[in-house]
Amino acid sequence: MERTETESIGxxxxxxxxxxxxxxxPLSRLHAGDIAPLTARVDRVAARxxxxxxxxAASIAHLGLAARLxxxxxxxxxxxxxxxxxxxxxxxxxxxxxSPDDLCWTRAGSLPGTVDSIREAVQFGHLVPLAEALRGDVxxxxxxxxxNAGSALAGALREIHRWARERDRPEVADRATALTTGxxxxxDLSGTVRGAALRRTSCCLYYRCPGGGLCGDCxxxxxxxxxxxxxxxxxxxxxxxxxxxxxxxxxxxx
Length: 254
Description:
The protein has helices at residues 27-31, 36-49, 54-80, 115-135, 142-167, 170-184, and strands spanning 25-26, 82-84, 91-93, 103-105, 110-112, 193-194, 199-200. By secondary structure, the chain is mostly helical.
């Protein structure tokens, strides 16, 4: 099947419509508290990346879904001035599949390609409840998740700019830039990326995977070094600079 103009930007921008597959489920279920599919997705990512840290796998899984949601709104909005309505009850997701087959729109409909419409449909309609569902399964900070969201939005913009340069469509790049600038002007997303390159100010934690490194927009210039773990039977001796009451960690937490 010939790709649509939006899909030609990249697989994350593709929209699939029709009957969902046997593994697809409405995202409304996830947002309502049925997090078992999300748990399965995180476990699958953890196995693929060979990481024992579920919060790392949760971050990478979240980043991928955030990128899909932003892209399928930003791309069509920049091209046509409207985007497929991602109403949670009609948008189905298969946690076992990768882009672009993971999402399926089961109901036709479009929304105006404005900052307010995209924010309401994607940020409030999906990213807010998705973050809460994920935090119900994994201990992961909201700041990291919003950093992922900002990074995913910036990544979608970069892909549109690349596509627009290749096809001499500067007006598409300009519309995408204006929309992205407006979307980033919100307390949850403001400050998640910075500078002309939209480099993120946090880290998705991919570097903590075996063989993992830094993403192109990472806040770090080099992977942080993790100090070796001390045996529990040999705690560091308290000093004047680190009194005994402080050796349990930040805020006195073990």
